[in-house]
Amino acid sequence: MSAQPDGPYGPLIPMPELTPDALRAAVAKIAPSRIPALTQHLFEATTNAQQAQSLAPLRAFIHSWAVFVAIERHPQRAARLRELERLLTDGEQETAEAVTEIRRIHETAETEAGLR
């Protein structure tokens, strides 16, 4: 198995800065239906950061949404990830191969986001 190429058009948007506002703007462009989830996650991360007196929850928020954006800004990559997840859920795919490809997609996204 190999990741699907991007095609001739490249990503839908450039990779945004790793700030809540920039990630929210990117999500609004490429997956507007996910804005409520991003908003809820940010609220929870902020609350947890205050309670724990730690930036770790905010870092986890940034990491999670940066990877999401890095994947979703490439429609073929996002479609392949959803297909692999569906195949795993349905039991139609060799688990080890699918998990390896999913891991590769996430690692590529982390690199593009500057998280690796």
Tell me the fraction of residues in β-strands, as a range. Answer: under 5%
Q: From the alpha carbons, calculate the radius of gyration and give it in angstroms.
A: 15 Å
What is the molecular shape?
globular
Biggest β-sheet strands, sense, barrel: none
Distance between the termini: 23 Å
How many discrete structural domains?
1
Helical content class: 55-70%
Q: Enumerate the spans where pLDDT stays under 50 for 5 or more consecutive residues.
A: 1-5
Number of helices: 5
Number of strands: 0
Q: Which secondary-structure class do the elements indicate?
A: mainly alpha
Order of helices and strands: HHHHH
Task: Report mean pLDDT, rounded to a whole number.
Answer: 92
Task: Describe this structure as you would to a colleague.
- With about 120 residues, this protein is mostly helical.
- It has one domain.
- It has helices spanning about 20-30, 35-50, 55-70, 75-90, 95-115.
- Helix 1 packs parallel to helix 3, helix 2 (about 35-50) packs antiparallel against helix 3 (about 55-70) and helix 4 (about 75-90) runs antiparallel to helix 5 (about 95-115).
- The two termini are about 25 Å apart.
- The relative contact order is 0.17.
